[in-house]
C-alpha cells in the first residue's frame, strides 16, 4: 500500500499546486471552472472585477450592473475569444475599446442601454464571428461604417432595438454574413427604408424567419404593415423623389443653359450686325463704282 502512495505523491502534489494556483488567479467574487474561464455572471458587479487572469479566454460578465468598459481593457487580455456582457448597464462603447481584440470570436452586448453604434466601435476585429446587439431598447442609430472590417462576421443580432431605419451599406460590408436578426424594430416605411426593404427581400434567406413577422409603420398615420404585404411598387414614388443635391444640380444646369443661350444670342446678334454693316458697305462701294 505504501509504495502506491509514494508513486502517487508527485501526481497529488501537481494537482494540489494546480488547484491552489487557480484559486489564487480567480477573482474573489467569481468562479473559474477551468484555467482559461472566468465566470462572474449574476454577481451584482458595478464594475469589472479585479485580478482577472491575463490568459483568460472566456470571460462571462452577464446579469450585472456594469456601466462601462475601460478603453484599454482588451489591451491586457489579448487571448480573449469569448466575452459575454449581456444584461448590464452599458450606455456606450468608446471607439477603440474593441479594436485591439484581435482574437475575439464571440461578443454579446445584448440587453444593455446602448443608444448608438458609431464608426470605429469594433475597429477591425477580423476574427469576430458572432455579434449580439439585440434587446437594447434605446439603440436607434447605427453608423453605416459601424461594422467595417468585420470580414469574418457570420451572425449579427439587431432584434428588438429602437431602429427606425438602417443603411444598407452597414450590412453589405459584411462578406461572410450568414444570419442577421432585425425583427422587433420600429421600422418606418418611408423612402429611406426602400433600399433596406429591397435588401431584405433579396437576402431573406439570411433572416431566421424570412420577412415574416417583420413590419413597419406608415409615415402618414402610423399604421403597422407586415413587410410580406409590401412590394417594390409600394416604394414607386420614392424613385422620383428628388434630394437637395438633385435640386442643386437642376438649378445649376438651368443657369448654365441660360448663360449659354444668352452668349449664343449675343454672338448671333453680333454676327448679324456685322454682316449687315458689311452688306451696306459693299452696296455703297458698288453704287460709287457705277457713277
From TrEMBL:
Domain of life according to the entry: Eukaryota
Keyword terms, alphabetized: Cell membrane, Disulfide bond, Ion channel, Ion transport, Leucine-rich repeat, Membrane, Repeat, Signal, Transmembrane, Transmembrane helix, Transport
Gene Ontology molecular function: potassium channel activator activity; transmembrane transporter binding; voltage-gated potassium channel activity
Residue ranges of domain LRRNT in the record: 25-58
PROSITE patterns: LRR
Membrane topology, record value: Single-pass membrane protein
SUPFAM superfamilies in alphabetical order: L domain-like
Signal peptide feature range: 1-23
Protein name, as recorded: Leucine rich repeat containing 38
Species: Phoxinus phoxinus
